[in-house]
Structures are given as structure tokens and as C-alpha cells.
User: Which sequence fits this backbone?
């Protein structure tokens, strides 16, 4: 892990409530005995009263107590009470059809909810709820049921509504996924949310979180590369991916042995293969990654290749951070990157 930047940089980030340091830096206040996230809305301390830590455990070991406003001991998303409340309800009943009226009935302001979820996940709560409902429809289609059954399982009153929602998420209408295919797509659940797995009998071709904004475009590109022959279903590779992800999140094994098919240019493939060489529990900056592939001036090109990776976790683009230790961008959401890096710290020992 990279060291923290200078206190002056951290203090400026504290004043700005900069989310770039979420999960990477914490401030402890000597006059109160409390430590916080840098994004905490509490009144800001004077710089001479601040101590800086890379982990909540280090702040607690130094005798500081966690703040009750920003919850620094959990993932960032869990520090927002609105987010944690609604996510718990969504997990309990993923097929519920939510509306802004439901939020108002709970005493919540829809615009506040929208901002909170977009800040954490890059999309609104209602969009996430719609994607969760589509999971039921996709599973029904995979099992060979009629389209109307899939529509009802996904909680849609109309066939057109189900078809349009499915197309927005997956890039193709549902009937396209039911024909003969060379690649098979299925949904698997992880502690960080649902993921789409696309594989044939020999290799993994795509692994993405279903709420990633670029997923439909990635599916369209992959479909073009294989002549549109992507259908619903599983293969032995799907089962292997699911088993290895379970072991990874359970803390039993950080390594992935599943074979992957990397669809990219020669340069992109080199970057992705180098990402796979980064051990769990370690991170690299974009500049370090460029040096490791022998092209030290290609930092921006490395960042672009990182952003176009379509095999999340297996090709661990989340292990690339800013040179100053900040998380920087992650297509799956900074909250996931924070959680993944925290999870992998256990593998570093």
C-alpha cells in the first residue's frame, strides 16, 4: 500500500470533503478523541489537532473512537443512513416495485435519495431496484420459460416495459438471447452485487457488475465480435467463476484459475495481463503499471486500458490507485473499489 500524502494535502481534502480518499485516509481529532472519514459533515478541526491514519483499526489502536455521523469503520455506502436503510429493504424484497411515492411515504425526499445513491453508486435507487427486478426475469428466461412468465417474475405489468428495461440493461431485447449461441450469459450474486457472466465451454469472456453504466455498450461490442451469438445459460466456466468468487469473498483464496479470453488490442491485453500479476493485497499507480509493461510514458493509455477492462475482479483493475494513494476512478463504483481493497488487505499477511 502507498503511504499517505503530506498532511497539508490531506487537510485540504478534509476541508473539501474530497471522496477520492475514501477508504484510504482517516482523520483523528485530538481534542475530541474521535476519528472520521475525510468526507464527514461534522465541523472541521484545526490542522494542529489532526492525526492521519490509513486504516480505522490503526486509529482505534491509538485510542480514538469512530464518529457516529460518518461511520468510518464500515464501507462508505454504509455510512449513509438513507443508503443503508434502502439497500437493506431492496435485499429483503428485490422484486418490489418502488416509486418516488414509496420514498415520500417513508419520510424521505426523493431528490435527496437520488443524490445519495448517485454519489455512492453512480445511479439512482429506482434504477437499482429496476435492475434487481430484472434478475428474476433473466433467471426465468434462462430456465426456458415463456416470455410472459419472465415478465411477471420481473414485476412488470406490460411486455413492452419488460422488453425495454431488459434492452437498456443488456443491450439486446430478451428474444435475441434465446436462440442458438456460442457464448452463454448468466447472472451470479456476490457480496458486492449482481454480476453478468458470459462464457463458452473454454473461457470467460465478460464479467461485469450489472449496474455498471457501460455494461450495455460492452455487451454490444462483445456481441459484434462473436457475430451476435450470445444466449442465456451456463457452462462449466460459469460454475468455476462462481465457485472461485465465493472462495475469494469468503477469504479462502485470492487467486483465480479460470481461463479468460481477453478481447482487446495488443497493448490492452498487455495491460490486462499485468493487472493479473498484481498480488491481492497490493496496489499500483498507473505510472507504476506503465513502467511494469516497459512503456513508462504511456500512463494515460494504461488508464484508458484499465477503464475498458470487461472482466472485473479476475482482471483486477481495482488494484490501480492514484499516485498519492487516492482511490481514483473505478467503473464499478468507488464504494466497491474501497471494499475490494479492504477485503484484500487480509490476503497481504
Assistant:
Amino acid at each position: 500500500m502507498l503511504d499517505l500524502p503530506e498532511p497539508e494535502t490531506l487537510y485540504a481534502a478534509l476541508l473539501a470533503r474530497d471522496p477520492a480518499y475514501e477508504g484510504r485516509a482517516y482523520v483523528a481529532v485530538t481534542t475530541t478523541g474521535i476519528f472520521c472519514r475525510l468526507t464527514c459533515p461534522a465541523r472541521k478541526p484545526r490542522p494542529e489537532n489532526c492525526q492521519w491514519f490509513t486504516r480505522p483499526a490503526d486509529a482505534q489502536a491509538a485510542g480514538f473512537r469512530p464518529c457516529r455521523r460518518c461511520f468510518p469503520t464500515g464501507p462508505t455506502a454504509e455510512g449513509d443512513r438513507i443508503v443503508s436503510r434502502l439497500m437493506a429493504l431492496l435485499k429483503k424484497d428485490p422484486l418490489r416495485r418502488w416509486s418516488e411515492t414509496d420514498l415520500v411515504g417513508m419520510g424521505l425526499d426523493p431528490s435527496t435519495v437520488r443524490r445519495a445513491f448517485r454519489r455512492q453508486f453512480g445511479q439512482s435507487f429506482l434504477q437499482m431496484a429496476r435492475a434487481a427486478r430484472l434478475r428474476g426475469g433473466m433467471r426465468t428466461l434462462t430456465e426456458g420459460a415463456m416470455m410472459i412468465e419472465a415478465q411477471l417474475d420481473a414485476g412488470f405489468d406490460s411486455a413492452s416495459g419488460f422488453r425495454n428495461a431488459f434492452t437498456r440493461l443488456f443491450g439486446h431485447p430478451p428474444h435475441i438471447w434465446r436462440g442458438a449461441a456460442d457464448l452463454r450469459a448468466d447472472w451470479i450474486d456476490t457480496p458486492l452485487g449482481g454480476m453478468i457472466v458470459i462464457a463458452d465451454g473454454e473461457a470467460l469472456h465478460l464479467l461485469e457488475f450489472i449496474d455498471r453504466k457501460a455494461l450495455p455498450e460492452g455487451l454490444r461490442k462483445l456481441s459484434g465480435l462473436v457475430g451476435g451469438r450470445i444466449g442465456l445459460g451456463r457452462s462449466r466456466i460459469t460454475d468455476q467463476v462462481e465457485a472461485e468468487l465465493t472462495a475469494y469473498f469468503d477469504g479462502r483464496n485470492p487467486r483465480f484459475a479460470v481461463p479468460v479470453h481477453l478481447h482487446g488490442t495488443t497493448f490492452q491485453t498487455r495491460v490486462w495481463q499485468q493487472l493479473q500479476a498484481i498480488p491481492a493485497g497490493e496496489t499500483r499507480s498507473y505510472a507504476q503499471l506503465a513502467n511494469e509493461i516497459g512503456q513508462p510514458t504511456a500512463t494515460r493509455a494504461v488508464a484508458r486500458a484499465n477503464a475498458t477492462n470487461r472482466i472485473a475482479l479476475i482482471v483486477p483493475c481495482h488494484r490501480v490507485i492514484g499516485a498519492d494513494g487516492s482511490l481514483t476512478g473505478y467503473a464499478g463504483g468507488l464504494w466497491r473499489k474501497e471494499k475490494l481493497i479492504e477485503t484484500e488487505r487480509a490476503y497481504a499477511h
Q: What stands out?
A: The chain has three domains: 7-74, 77-126, 179-349. The radius of gyration is 21 Å. DSSP finds 14 helices and ten strands in the chain.
